[in-house]
Amino acid sequence: MTGASGELVLAEHRGPVLVLTFNRPAKLNAWTDELEDRYFALLDAAEDDPDVRAVVVTGAGRGFCSGADLQLLRSVREIDEASAADSAHRRPRDLPLTQRKPLIGAINGVAAGLGMVEALYCDLRFGSPSARFTTAFAQRGLIAEYGISWLLPRLTGHSRAMDLLLSSRMVDADEALRIGLLDHLVPTGSVVDAAVGYAADLATRCSPGSMATIKSRLHHDADGTYADSVARAESLMLQAFRGADVVEGVAGHLEKRPPGFPPLPPVRSSDVPV
């Protein structure tokens, strides 16, 4: 485990998988600027670490993340002033969406407000029976923040997203699985272990370059046309056929061995597939 137990986000390497744990259990891992800075710095570091091929994010104790810690902000005016002051120098709030490597959520308890948004920023989510979701915003006099009005209907459909955003009602694990907030419900055992097992399988069997391109295309194609998606895929497929990963992937399959795919290169704008 990287860092002392007092760190706001703990980092643990489990082979090729990095496990990041929000670590304010007494506050159900309520979000602060300091927690965000630590989390985002660890994600940035993981992007350039060739030994990290997938990331699992979870929460310490009984919660995943209960949302922004409003007790640290004494008034609406203070919230406005803090947001304005931070906007010029902070990393984008949706930085987790830009990660090239798989980001897997292990939802071990409540994910509320901004905590729910952070869960939805993950590529997919494993949940324990204690996983719960609430948008919370309308009950706090807030709006659908940080892109959740774009993300949520793509997972649940328009009317379900409207229901969850208008009512701020609590969704339990079974309903979350049924409507698409969770992809895997772990009925027994550790949800973190299950998420790490899945991530480790990706890390050992799948091409990092292929996964980065697939993630990028899913995000870009969400707002494009089918024809544009097909045309771009044809171009990317030709590039893939010329690359070493296809040779290694086919060889590994024919020789009945795990493929030895290379890690992603360090982050540069020209390296990110679009």
Write up this protein.
The strands form 2 sheets. A 6-stranded mixed beta sheet has the order 1-2-3-5-7-9, with helices on both faces. Strands 4-6-8 form a 3-stranded parallel beta sheet. The radius of gyration is 19 Å and the shape is globular. Helix 4 packs across helix 5 (158-167). The protein folds into 2 domains: 9-203, 2-enoyl-CoA Hydratase, Chain A, domain 1; 207-271, Lyase 2-enoyl-coa Hydratase, Chain  A, domain 2, CATH 1.10.12. The chain has helices at residues 33-47, 76-86, 114-121, 148-156, 158-167, 173-179, 191-205, 208-221, 226-241, 244-254; strands at 9-14, 17-22, 54-59, 63-65, 103-107, 110-112, 124-127, 132-134, 184-185. It is an alpha/beta fold and 274 residues long. The two termini are 34 Å apart.
